[in-house]
Design goal:
Layout lengths: L28 H24 L3 H6 L4 H21 L4 E2 L4 E2 L2 H16 L4 E7 L5 E7 L4 H21 L3 H12 L9 H10 L11 E5 L2 E5 L5 H11 L4 H15 L5
Helix pairs in contact: 1-4, 1-5, 1-6, 3-4, 4-5, 5-6
Keywords: Hydrolase, Metal-binding
InterPro entries: Peptidase_M49
Organism: Lates japonicus (Japanese lates)
Length: about 260
């Protein structure tokens, strides 16, 4: 019931006025922001990552300096805006809801960077070489440290202030606004979602390589990260006792059968 700050002196940096809301009693971040708490926080974390990766001192800690550091920044930002577009896969138009917190957060960041303008991020619908709908997203690396940094800085400040002051109405209005997926405005995101689904690739699989002796040397045998590659890796690894292995696997399968409906 006691304040740990002076309400008359703590100023909201977004309004210039004294803070007018705060967490009360047993209220917490999750209880106040409820349904958007998870994705909102993921978005804030991603924005912190984008912002801090621009710090040369931070990059040098990980051994990245000069042009190498600039390449890391570019790939990091480009990966984020691309992920924002691909995140549309996890939006359900029928219920107007998002099914994945991280993907919603990345879409919000894409919207923020598109809104920044000045040619920072480009998004256009194109026709692929196969004649099917496709999309192209671009990022002007020369504007990341200026236009991009300022856009993320402003947005991150808003996210932080709404969270710190428990301003649910303001935070939800901001976040829901950027999360909206529609067919109006500068970009037809509903149509782009269909393109994303059309261009969806099979999920890559972790496939273990094998080794084999060839004369006096040992060769590394690698496989594609697909179901076919996984099967090939498995069968070639156990060529000598394949029949016994198959029998053992079938027996194990029979034992597990009662556990499955």
């Amino acid at each position: 019931g006691k304040f740990n700050f002076d309400q008359s002196k703590v100023i909201n940096p977004e309004t210039g006025e004294p803070v007018s809301s705060w967490y009360r009693g047993s209220e917490t971040w999750d209880s106040k922001f409820s349904t958007i708490a998870s994705t909102y926080e993921e978005c804030r974390a991603e924005c912190v990552g984008l912002y801090l990766c621009l710090n040369k001192q931070v990059l040098s800690i990980f051994g990245h300096e000069g042009q190498d550091a600039e390449d890391v920044v570019y790939v990091n930002w480009l990966s984020m805006v691309r992920a924002g577009l691909l995140g549309l896969e996890f939006y359900t138009p029928e219920s107007k809801s998002w099914r994945q917190a991280h993907m919603q957060a990345r879409f919000v960041i894409l919207r923020v960077l598109l809104e920044a303008g000045e040619g920072l991020v480009g998004l256009e619908e194109v026709t692929g070489k196969d004649g099917m709908p496709d999309a192209r997203i671009t990022l002007d690396r020369s504007k990341i440290h200026t236009v991009g940094k300022n856009a993320i800085h402003r947005f991150l400040c808003k996210l932080q202030v709404f969270k710190s002051t428990a301003d649910v109405d303001g935070g939800r209005a901001l976040y829901d606004g950027y999360s909206a997926v529609s067919d109006s405005g500068a970009y037809n995101f509903l149509r782009l979602r269909e393109t994303v689904l059309l261009r969806k690739e099979v999920r890559k699989m972790f496939v273990q390589a094998n080794t084999r002796v060839s004369g006096d040397s040992v060769e590394l045998v690698e496989y594609e990260g697909t179901v076919a590659g996984l099967i090939s890796s498995f069968t070639e690894r156990f060529q000598d006792d394949a029949e016994q292995l198959e029998a053992d696997l079938l027996e194990l399968s029979k034992r597990d059968a009662p556990c499955w409906c």
